[in-house]
Amino acid sequence: MYCMRILLFALCLAFSLQSCSEDDITGTQKTCKDIVEHLSSYEHKTLDITGKSAETNGLSFYFKNNKLVLATIATYEESGRTNAQYFFDNEELICVIQDEYVYNRPTYMTEERALKDGDSVWYDDTKTKMTTTRYYFFEGRMVKWINKDNKVIPETNKKYDFQAAILLRDAEKIKKMSSASTN
Q1: 61 close to 49: Cβ distance less than 8 angstroms
Q2: According to the model, what pLDDT value does residue 180 have?
Q3: Domain membership of residue 41 as a residue range
Q4: CA atoms in the 13 A half-sphere facing the CB of 69
């Protein structure tokens, strides 16, 4: 009985050291911060993908010791833009940060055009609103999703698994593209 308790305790301890709770993202945040702070020391490559998407201007990769640590994607539309950062540690996705900028009017709505159309509101970059969504991953699964309202989305939310699958799929595509950019 005593041996069984020790074995059970050892198994629980091993499992707890190996898993990641939703609240244990400080290590990931530190890794992401470290990557951003050292960007200038990493090898940088850009892949032009404008032909594949009318809005996306390109994909930037950052490598540390020939390993992908960050990929950034900027997507531009008439009504806003999105900047996405995919962070990697040992070739594994650890975090995605998406900054979304929503314009007050489409970019083509200049003051001149608005007044000509009888409109009193035109595109003004100072009225752009930005929101940030963060996704944290551990061992190939999403462990925390913080939405643009800074609220944690629970794993029980029906969109949770779908969103995780999309981001993991996109991360795999990004890794393949980064390999192509180094050849």
Answers
A1: no
A2: 75
A3: 23-103+132-182
A4: 20
